Structures are given as C-alpha cells and as structure tokens.
C-alpha cells in the first residue's frame, strides 16, 4: 500500500497533494490556528477559477450584437511534454474553448491572433443543448475575465 501525503497550510492559503492513488492510505498534516482561518475567505476567491497559459488555435471569432455588446470565441491549446518509458519525448495537447464578452472581446479582437501565447483567467461554464438528431450534448467553456499576452507578437 502506498502512503499519500496531503498537506494543508491554512496560514498561506494553499494546499499540496503528493499521491499515488492506487491502494492509498492518507496521512494528513494540517497546520492551522485561529488566525489562519481568517485566510479561508481568500479561498472563496478561487472558487470556480481557471488559470491557463497556452496558444490560440485560430483567430478569435467575434460577433457584435444589436445592443453594442461583443462576444469573442477562440480555442486555447495547452501543451505538456514528457518522456515515455522508451525515452522519447511525447507532447500531449489539451484544447479549451474560451469565450469573452464586452470590452475584453474588443481588445481580444484587436491584439490576439492564431498562435498568440496568452495567460488567461476566468471561470468554467457548463452548457447543454439538444442537437438536430435529438441527442443532448454538453459543452464546457472558460468565460475569460482577464488575460495577458505572454509570448512575442506573431
């Protein structure tokens, strides 16, 4: 049986997991005091919070509405590389759908292009719809509220 260590540091407002999840026993190391619990309110700020750094898969698709609001959509590729058992480099790419509203959508339209490297922050939003064949489909997207261009302009 493997022993997993899960440590929480209430004073700093973070937690750390080091685990193998097969046949796992858990050892807790909790360092908290009364003053530390005041920091729990900071954790409310990370509820439904997503932060990613990646590259745009295509130019943002922007729609303008009659009320003057804009909506921008783009896909974000997150690449992770590792070496497999044979020592070969393997790259795994995860794709995320991102939506942006209002003034941020206008800024995204002006400066982001396919291949731009950006850091984004937002929240997860789950939706469902029924397709033309009557099958219920589910989507997950990130509603972006902040971003920063990370890489050089392309």
- Name the CATH superfamily assignment of the largest domain: Nucleic acid-binding proteins
Q: What best-fitting shape do the alpha-carbon axes yield? A: globular
The count of DSSP E runs of length 2 or more, i.e. the number of strands, is: 9
Oligomerization state: single chain
How many helical stretches? 2
Secondary-structure arrangement, i.e. CATH architecture of the largest domain = Beta Barrel
Uncertain residue segments = 1-31
Q: Which CATH class of the largest domain? A: Mainly Beta
Gyration radius from CA atoms, angstroms: 20 Å
Give the end-to-end Cα distance, rounded to a whole number of Å.
50 Å
Largest sheet: 5 strands, mixed, barrel
The third-level CATH topology of the largest domain is OB fold (Dihydrolipoamide Acetyltransferase, E2P)
How do you describe this structure in short?
The chain has about 150 residues and is mainly beta.
């Amino acid at each position: 049986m493997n022993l997993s260590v899960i440590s929480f540091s209430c004073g700093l407002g973070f937690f750390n997991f080091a685990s193998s999840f097969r046949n796992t026993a858990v050892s807790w190391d909790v360092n908290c005091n009364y003053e530390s619990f005041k920091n729990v309110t900071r954790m409310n700020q990370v509820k439904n919070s997503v932060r990613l750094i990646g590259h745009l898969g295509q130019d943002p698709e922007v729609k303008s509405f009659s009320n003057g609001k804009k909506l921008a959509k783009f896909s974000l590729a997150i690449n992770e590389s590792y070496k497999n058992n044979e020592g070969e480099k393997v790259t795994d790419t995860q794709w995320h759908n991102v939506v942006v509203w209002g003034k941020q959508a206008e800024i995204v339209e002006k400066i982001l292009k396919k291949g731009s490297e950006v850091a984004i922050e937002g929240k997860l939003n789950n939706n469902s719809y029924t397709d033309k064949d009557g099958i219920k489909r589910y989507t997950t997207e990130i509603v972006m509220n902040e971003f920063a261009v990370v890489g050089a302009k392309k």
